[in-house]
Design a protein that fits this description.
four-stranded mixed β-sheet; Pdz3 Domain; globular; alpha+beta; 15% strand; single chain; 39% helix
Amino acid sequence: MKTSKSPRFPRWPWLRPGLPTWLGLSLLVLLRADVAPPEVPPANAPAPKVAQSEPAGDPLRDLITFTTKYDQVVPLLPGAYDSDITRLTARILENMHYSRHPLDAEYAERFFNRYLETLDPQHFHFTQEDLKEFGKYRERLAELTLRQGDTRPANEIFARYLQRVDQRATLVARLLQAGEFDFSSDERYTPNRKDAPWPENLEAAQALWRQHLRHEYLLELLNKQKPEEIVKKLAMRYKRLLRALGEFDREDILQFYLSALANAYDPHSDYMGKAQLDNFAISMRLSLFGIGALLRSEDGYCTIESLTPGGPAARSKKLKPKDRIIAVQQAGGEPVDVVDMKLSKVVEMIRGPKNTEVTLTIIPADAADSSERRTVTLVRDEIKLEDQAAKARLYEISNGEGPAVRVGVIDLPSFYASFELGKTGEKTEPRSTTADVTRLIRKLEAEGIAGLILDLRRNGGGSLEEAIKLTGLFIREGPIVQVRAA
């Protein structure tokens, strides 16, 4: 048993009996890092091929066009390293998890059920017949995972899920096109199906999908929406669902699958793929190398949401919010069409080492029509995510008697720290929660505060070491947390 004690820090003058420091609730999470393999393109990714230069027209017509793309979807082939990663993850959990529990029949059952719940938490798409068919994997899952690293269960089950969603969207498109929604009869429907059984067969599932669509339509009707507006809204909703699912690639499916395996051991263990690990490292360092633009996906286009002040994009004065990025070109390379590409992939292409060039082809937000193009070349730089760092505010509180009392408030969204995680690409200036909070406390102390509130309400966790060091700012010494090795 290892007990972590707080470092010896001098007490702050204002931290004394009668002037307490209030602490909010926080969740400390252990950091997990997984070895990421080299990028291997999906062998037959089911991503939709609907890249168009013109914006979408009639949402219902678009939905009808979009459906049936996955009705006969072929499961993805495993990547070159998927079996090795799967075996290694299973062995690590068996030998290094706190429980040291083998991946036996009981845990394999948990693993299998967790994967189904990850894909279909509301028991809405899979049928009892599907589950019976998947039984060939359920009984051999431990052997397939530990000995062979076989990811066929992950890919085949996901392919069936994609097929069922496509069938649902096809039914929805037909019902919306017919436009016959009669609510004169007495009918009962329970929207939350988390504890309900999966439908018996496809016919039962279709009846369930029909009921849910009627429920969605009725909610909009009660919200005083016009029928034609309801049809447009629901058609867009299901089109977005299909588009989002079509963007999942082999790495995403592997992450869902191995996360389900980790969750079989406990709900706080997880698996991070390469992209997720890189993003987690960025959230810990509070910096990245790129152009300084917040992006979002809209109707298949990568659209600029906002620009980071002082970043390369803002300094160039050539980009603005609502510009749509349709191609990305690396220095010395050819432009790559990114319409309908998964947003995380576009972001990965735009990020890169400091002082390297990236060229974007955009449709300007103020373009007269969507055939207008503009090319913008930017030099990547370090972007500091200051909005996610600790911040301090000063309040003067008066109760009507005597002078006002000055109270400092420090908002701490996470316990961040600079350390190597994933593909950092470049060395960044070290960042520490404890160092930032120390600086803010000294600044508040110079303002003559009588007390301090450390606001951890939005804090989702981070570095356990930083949390321990931070506590040392407020107590001289003593146990902070106990960690028992597995």
